[in-house]
Amino acid sequence: MELGRKWVQLVIAFLTNGYWGFPVSRTIYQGPLKVVCSPGLNCYSCPAATTYCPMGALQQLMVSIRFSLETGHYYVGLYVLGCIGVVGSFLGRMVCGWACPFGFIQEMLHKIPSRKWGVPRILRFFKYAVLFGMVLLLPLFVVSEFGLGEPWFCKYLCPAGTLEAGIPMLFLRPELRGTIGWLFYNKLIIMIFFIIWSVLASRPFCRVGCPLGAFYALFSRVKLVKLQLDEAKCTQCEACHHVCPMGVKFNESPNDAECISCMACMNKACRFDAISLSVAGIPLRTTEVVKAKRAEG
Amino acid sequence: MEKQPVAEKKRSVKEKRKIRILPFVVLTVFLFVFLAGVLTGEPSRVLEQSWQICLSCIGIG
Ligand code: SF4
Ligand code: SF4
């Protein structure tokens, strides 16, 4: 299953970054697919990106919302919210575990041998501040004299943007190198910080700073596809605690907002069949029913 | 270990199989949000944005 998940991550990373004409065109993909939402965090200024990044798009819409309304256009983010809302209603943070290129990069970095550390649970709240502050409120309310805001998360924080777009664009367009300033160095330092942290701890950006992860986390109780715990079968052996890449204690908190449905606890840890994948509350594994029927007949 | 009677086992399985309605409600709400966004013409704006390289967004300029 773990290998299957890795393949899914790899294929989705390639699909959302499938424009390989950029070394020739020396610019980003500008085709119709860019109206499709990338389920995970994937900078749309990345030269290879084929889809739009929902966090980037949402900020840009907030930034220019006054101008849009003044010109009679109701571009208030409904399309973008609708896209990620539909995905979130189905899968919640399963997207993080299976379909996010930046999550995948962090997982790969964490495979580099080193001493490993945990991430303090309290830090998880920061990503909600990033979502509501840097993606929605600051771009909406801190505006220039012309009524335009700034994309705070992309501009000052997003390490995926620096890695996937900022650095590659400097290679593609040497003329841009002269325009580098403190903004770039600030983001470069943040990116290096998260790269080093990803080697030492599992998915630190997902746990602490990602606004898209924070958005999907809001669906942890209401998503259609989720893991569920059979309390009758759980022996409280706590084996699931030791395999979780997100620091979740599944038997204590089966609806945890940090769970990315990687299924490590179900497949690698639980020997008592207490964890199962369910769709709308229906467990996908029906072995119990089958066994019960067999025993009866 | 005491064996669970078959009837009881089936009941517990049935209980577990109760369909959760809330995910469908949330899904429907977001489908409407999505459709509302499409009707306002937002996809074309998103497309325009995503065709431009946002230099300040990526830390350059
Ligand atoms: S938390 Fe963000 S960066 Fe991490 S996997 Fe989820 S969407 Fe991707
Ligand atoms: S609780 Fe289980 S499925 Fe969720 S992230 Fe942890 S190991 Fe993966």
From TrEMBL, chain A:
Domain of life: Bacteria
One Pfam family linked to the record: Fer4
Sequence intervals crossing the membrane: 76-104, 125-143, 179-200
SUPFAM superfamilies with a match to the protein in the record: 4Fe-4S ferredoxins
Sorted UniProt keywords: 4Fe-4S, Electron transport, Iron, Iron-sulfur, Membrane, Metal-binding, Transmembrane, Transmembrane helix, Transport
GO cellular component: plasma membrane
GO molecular function, one term: metal ion binding
Domain 4Fe-4S ferredoxin-type: 225-254, 255-280
Keyword flag Iron: yes
UniProt protein name: 4Fe-4S binding protein
Organism of provenance: Candidatus Desulfobia pelagia
UniProtKB/TrEMBL annotation, chain B:
Superkingdom, natural source: Bacteria
Keywords tagged on the record: Membrane, Transmembrane, Transmembrane helix
Record-given protein name: Thioredoxin
Tagged with keyword Transmembrane helix: yes
Source organism per UniProt: Candidatus Desulfobia pelagia
Transmembrane segments: 21-41
